[in-house]
Inverse folding.
């Protein structure tokens, strides 16, 4: 028994060098490799490739969509800025129009007031002239009376027509 | 010729006998590599269901679970499993594209098969009680020969006799070229050897070392005085070697794959 074991030991020290098992190992290795090759090349690798491609596609699409949205945001901002500028311009216009209207009203009112003032002034001046004229007549009458009285006091009879003529001449001179 | 099963049984007896001579510690670090039938204790024939079958099926099943079941939802925002599957896909695809070139992409499923099989065989082999299929030279030699034959056939189909310019270093001085050609030819034929032994050797060595340290671990049960030092140290060593093996499991799969890509590049673009 012991000698048999020793013989076996020396015949094949390493299990790796036990050639009687080589056929078995090679056969099952071939089976395993063929099965594995078909699993990988038919199912696993195409599927993973598809998943990776799909992911790449999704990422590309999402990036494109993001770019699109960004462009739209920029567009919207521009539109907003434009609307703002337009509104501001409109407001400026309205302000200017209103200012002009107010100025016109003011000018008209001023003109009317000026005219009225002018009329009133003219009327006043006329009244003053009238009054002055009245005063002149009164002065003439008083001067005539005074002259007649003076002449009378000197004992002479005052001729009314000559007195008037004299007073008129004096007042003109 | 005696049946292989009897040989297996005999060998185990031999190692146990050795162990009992060595003071009660049981050393058989190579037993984990034995090819055994799953059912019964008969001979290992070509089509016998063995632990090799089991762990290869598990590697295929794990790849299936990761790359097919893990991606079954086809999520745009991937979950954890799908992320890992996509990572593996991108990793190998990029490797093929960067190392072997864009025209090597038709070989991507083939290289992906090699990588997934090796990486899962390596990692599953790290489970306790597991069998590491890639620790067997029979397995890695077939993998390496597949690459070698593929690369050689592709080279001759694409370039005809022009493929031989791979061995003719036109940048070297003329008298040196025949010598270099001889060296190049030898190195070309050594490729599958190094390619396969690198993987199997790494896997076997690491697992064997773990087993050796594991055999020292129960020392405390035999002698408290020695064991108080040896047992914690060996457990620490197992942990450290195991961590290294996790790294090696990935790196060796990576190395095997990237070398395949390098060889493929030589076949597609043989001109130096």
């Amino acid at each position: 028994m012991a000698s048999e074991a020793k013989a076996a030991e020396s015949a094949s020290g390493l299990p790796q060098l036990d050639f009687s098992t080589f056929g078995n190992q090679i056969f099952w290795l071939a089976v395993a490799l063929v099965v594995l090759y078909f699993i990988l090349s038919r199912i696993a690798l195409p599927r993973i490739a598809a998943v990776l491609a799909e992911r790449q596609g999704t990422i590309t699409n999402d990036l494109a969509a993001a770019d699109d949205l960004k462009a739209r945001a920029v567009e919207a901002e521009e539109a907003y800025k434009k609307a703002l500028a337009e509104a501001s311009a409109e407001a400026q216009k309205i302000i200017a129009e209103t200012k002009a209207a107010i100025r016109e009203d003011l000018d008209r009112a001023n003109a009317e007031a000026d005219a009225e003032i002018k009329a009133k002034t003219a009327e006043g001046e006329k009244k003053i002239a009238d009054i002055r004229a009245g005063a002149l007549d009164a002065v003439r009458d008083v001067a005539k009376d005074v002259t007649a009285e003076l002449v009378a006091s000197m004992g002479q009879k005052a001729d009314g027509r000559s007195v008037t003529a004299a007073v008129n001449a004096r007042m003109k001179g | 010729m005696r049946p292989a099963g009897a040989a297996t049984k005999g060998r185990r007896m031999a190692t146990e006998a050795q162990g009992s001579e060595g003071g009660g510690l049981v050393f058989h670090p190579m037993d984990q590599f034995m090819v055994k039938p799953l059912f019964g204790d008969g001979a290992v024939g070509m089509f016998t269901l063995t632990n090799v079958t089991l762990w290869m099926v598990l590697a295929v099943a794990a790849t299936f679970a990761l790359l097919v079941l893990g991606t079954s939802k086809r999520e745009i925002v991937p979950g954890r499993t799908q992320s890992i599957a996509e990572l593996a896909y991108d990793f190998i695809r990029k490797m093929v594209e960067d190392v072997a070139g864009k025209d090597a992409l038709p070989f991507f499923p083939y290289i992906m098969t090699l990588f997934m099989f090796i990486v899962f065989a390596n990692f599953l082999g790290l489970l306790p009680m597991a069998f590491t299929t890639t620790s067997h030279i029979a397995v890695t030699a077939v993998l390496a020969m597949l690459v070698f034959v593929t690369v050689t056939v592709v080279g001759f189909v694409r370039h005809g006799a022009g493929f031989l310019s791979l061995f003719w270093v036109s940048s070297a001085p003329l008298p040196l070229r025949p010598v270099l050609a001889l060296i190049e030819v030898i190195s070309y034929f050594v490729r599958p050897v190094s390619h396969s032994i690198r993987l199997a050797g790494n896997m076997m060595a690491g697992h064997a070392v773990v087993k050796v340290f594991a055999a020292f671990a129960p020392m405390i049960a035999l002698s408290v005085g020695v064991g108080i030092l040896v047992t914690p140290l060996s457990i620490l060593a197992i942990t450290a070697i195991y961590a290294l093996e996790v790294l090696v499991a990935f790196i060796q799969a990576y190395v095997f794959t990237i070398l395949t890509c390098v060889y493929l590049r030589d076949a597609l673009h043989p001109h130096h």
The helical segments of chain B are 4-21, 51-69, 80-100, 108-124, 137-159, 177-216, 219-222, 224-268. The two ends of chain B are 51 Å apart (CA to CA).
